[in-house]
Automatic annotation (TrEMBL):
Residues 361-381 are annotated as: Disordered. It comes from the Bacteria. This is Transcriptional regulator, TetR family.
Length: 381
C-alpha cells in the first residue's frame, strides 16, 4: 500500500493486519519508512534489500501474506512467496490531511517511531501539508492505474476493511487460504508492552487497552509488570531515556534555557511524563540521565558548587514540567507544543533570581522540597 504523508497508511495497515490475525491468518507487516531511520538516509536499493530480507524471514516463520506500507511505489513492490502481490494507493482530501497533521502534532493519535509531526512546531506543520499534496500529485501521475481507497471521511477501521476488500480479490493467499484455528499473535515481552503503553499515551493508557492492542488477555500483562503504576513508571522511564536532548549552547545560561525548552518538548511529546519526573520512583536509566545533566552543566559552569548546580538545574526542570503541564492540559496558548517567548523570559528571570541568592542557599536538603530530589542530588554528581 502506498500513500502520501499523514494519509493514515500506517494506522490503516495496522488495523488490516489485526483483522487478518483475528481471522487466524499468519500475516506480517512492514512500514518501509521505519527502515530508513538513519542519517544519511540509505539508498532505495538498500532499503529494498532490507525489505526483502524481512519478508523472507516472515515467510520462513510461516507468514502467508505480508502488508507493506510506503510513500514510495518502488519500495512497495517486492515479491512475497509465489506472487508479486497487489499495490493499492491510499488517498485523502486536503481538509482531512490538515486535520491529521494537527492531530499527530498534538499527540492525539498513535505514536509511530520517529514521527516527524509529534510535538512539531507550527512552521514544520505548515510545511507538511503542501509537501503531502505534492506527493499526492506525484503518486497519481506515477501510478494512474492503481486502485484507490479514499480515507477522508472514514475511520481507520473502515479504511482497513476497504483495503482488505481489494486485497481479497487479487491476492491468492487471501482468496485460497482458509482461516486458521485461532488468532496469530506475536511473542509478548516487556519491550512490546512498554512501547504499546507509550504509543497509547502515558496519561491515558490502561491495562485493558494495552492488552487489547497486543491481542492478549489482561492477565497476560501481569507476567511482566505488577500493576498499572509499575507499567507507567517503566514506560515513562523508557520515553525519557529515548528522548534525544540536543544541548549545544556553550554559555551556561543559554544551556539552562535549552534544558527548559527541550524538557517542554519532552512533556509535549509524552503528556503525563511530568508526574514521573517530579515524583519518581526512578529507573536506573533515568538516574543516569539526571547525573549526566548535572555533569554537563557543571562542565560549563565550574564556578558553581555541586549544591548550587543541582538547585539551578532541578528548579528549571521542575518549573518547566509544571508550566508545560498547565499549558498542554488547558491549551491556553496557540501552539502548546512549543514554549512561548514569555516562557523563555520567565526561565531566564528565574535563573537570574536564583543566581543572585546562591550565597544564602539553605543547607538543609529537606528545604529543597520541589523537584526530583532523590534523582538529581549533589551526592550523585
Amino acid at each position: 500500500m502506498i500513500g502520501l504523508t499523514a494519509v493514515g497508511k500506517s494506522t490503516a495497515g495496522w488495523h488490516a493486519l489485526r483483522t487478518l490475525w483475528q481471522e487466524g491468518r499468519p500475516a506480517a507487516f512492514v512500514d518501509a519508512q521505519q527502515l530508513g531511520f538513519v542519517h544519511p538516509r540509505p539508498s532505495d536499493a538498500f532499503v529494498r534489500a532490507q525489505i526483502s530480507i524481512l519478508l523472507h524471514g516472515y515467510q520462513r516463520a510461516g507468514a502467508t501474506v505480508a502488508l507493506l506500507v510506503s510513500r514510495d511505489p518502488v519500495l512497495a513492490r517486492p515479491r512475497f512467496g509465489e506472487g508479486a502481490g497487489a499495490l493499492i494507493r491510499l488517498a485523502a482530501d486536503p481538509d482531512a490531511l490538515a486535520r491529521r497533521v494537527e492531530s499527530r502534532a498534538r499527540g492525539s493519535s498513535a505514536l509511530p517511531a520517529g514521527d516527524e509531526l509529534r510535538a512539531a512546531p507550527a512552521p514544520t506543520r505548515r510545511a507538511v501539508l503542501p509537501r503531502a499534496l505534492r506527493e499526492a500529485e506525484d503518486l497519481a501521475r506515477a501510478c494512474p492505474d492503481l486502485p484507490v481507497v479514499d480515507s477522508s471521511r472514514q475511520a481507520a477501521e473502515a479504511t482497513a476493511a476497504a483495503l482488505l476488500e481489494h486485497l481479497r480479490s487479487s491476492v491468492l493467499a487471501l482468496r485460497s487460504l482458509p482461516p486458521g484455528p485461532g488468532t496469530v499473535r506475536l511473542v509478548l515481552n516487556r519491550d512490546r508492552i512498554l512501547e504499546t503503553a507509550i504509543a497509547q499515551g502515558l496519561d491515558r493508557f490502561s491495562m485493558a487497552g494495552v492488552s487489547r492492542e497486543l491481542g492478549v488477555t489482561d492477565m497476560a500483562l501481569y507476567r511482566y509488570v505488577g500493576s498499572r503504576e509499575e507499567l507507567y513508571s517503566l514506560a515513562a522511564a523508557r520515553a525519557h531515556a529515548t528522548f534525544q536532548f540536543r544541548l549545544e549552547g556553550t554559555d551556561w545560561r543559554a544551556h539552562l534555557v535549552e534544558v527548559a525548552e527541550q524538557t517542554w518538548q519532552l512533556a509535549a511529546r509524552h503528556p503525563g511524563i511530568e508526574r514521573y519526573l517530579l515524583d519518581g520512583p526512578y529507573h536506573p536509566e533515568t538516574l543516569r540521565v539526571f547525573d549526566a545533566s548535572i555533569a554537563g552543566f557543571r562542565a560549563l559552569a565550574p564556578q558553581f558548587s555541586a549544591d548550587q548546580a543541582y538547585v539551578l538545574l532541578s528548579r528549571v526542570v521542575s518549573f518547566t514540567l509544571a508550566a508545560a503541564d498547565n499549558a498542554l492540559s488547558r491549551r491556553w496558548q496557540p501552539d502548546p507544543g512549543e514554549p512561548s517567548a514569555l516562557f523563555r523570559w520567565t526561565v531566564e528571570a528565574l535563573v537570574d533570581g536564583m543566581v543572585g541568592r546562591l550565597d544564602d542557599l539553605p543547607t538543609d536538603p529537606s528545604a529543597r522540597g520541589l523537584g526530583p530530589e532523590s534523582a538529581i542530588s549533589p551526592s550523585r554528581s
